[in-house]
Amino acid sequence: MEPLARYTPALCRKARRLLGNTADAEDVVQSLFAELVQRGRTDVDLPYLFRAVTSRCLNLVRDGGNRRRLLERQEPALRGPVRTRFDDQVIGMDLMLKVLDRLDGPCAEALIYRYFDDMTQEEIAEVQDVTRKTVAARLARVHDAVAALLGDGSESSGGASGGGR
Amino acid sequence: MTGAARPPACTGRPLSWLLLERHALGDLPARQARRVRAHLASCAVCASCAAEAGATSAPVPGQGGTPRRSWWRRYAVGWATTATLACAAGGFLLMARGREPSVRAPGGTLPGVKGGEVALELVREREGTISHGAERFTPGDRWKALVTCPAGHVLFWDVTVREGQGGPTQFPLAPSGPIACGNHVALPGAFRLSGSAPVQVCVRLTADPLPRESSTHVVPVTAQNLCATVHPEP
Fold it and tell me: What is the pTM of this model?
């Protein structure tokens, strides 16, 4: 049972980076743990839990009502240093939400792992349990989707700044 | 932050958060851990992320040496009951803090609230770079205040800024309502600091709405002041 508890802070940080607020992040992690308890599945490692949290966060942001709330409640300061950028562009929440509409599930996951979790292709391959070549293809689709959005001019500043009045 | 200078970048390939978290937990094989340590020794950006990842077990201010019963155990014992679920949620909120707050109020508790630990952390944004617990300011920096207070409480708040010892008290933010307490709750709005003397930033938390004029005079017994002093860049 203890293994899950020791991962709590790491998973909350992970969810908070993506969702931009603490309350939703904690809800996501708590619901994941509740489900794992129910299924008697407590012998899991951090990479597994990272993927599970990513999946739940993506489900959350796919809902239109949640999106509005997340955008209103987001605190960019909780994102932390942004080390991986799309060219020079920070993929913030606003841009991320728009890109997600153009991606399938696996590509959406890859987007999060690359630009929010700073994973390498090798790490993403390991977490998604696919080859590095598949990851490269998924990231290429992510690249195309982001580039198309930025090219459309429909992207608003999604950087790690702001949050003030 | 369009048009801002590019913030410091990783010196090589950024270490992923997953890697940093696993390193902080001691879950990495020795060889991989050595590689991580070598990178952290030469990369300030990743080192700052590692510091955040490493603060996983930060104690609740004021609860330093007190062993806390795991939310997990409480959760497991009373799985079927709503009461236990609520208890587990409370325990979870207590456990799920991201890092040790950089500043603590003397005493660190809310009067009349059992287990009412409170803490303040200032977060600085400088040219797109976010720093937790920063202690230096320039006029261009933007600051936010993160407050930790007992989950389940709704508190009114205000932020005061005072330059030097005898400077006037200023109110950089305009609270539009109370906050729901929790861990590292960001107060709405951001502010800038200026001047050539150290600046004291205080967050006041009260159970009741507090007129601003009283902030410069007597602090009510029900109010909790959390203060941090930041200094101008030399």
Answer: 0.53
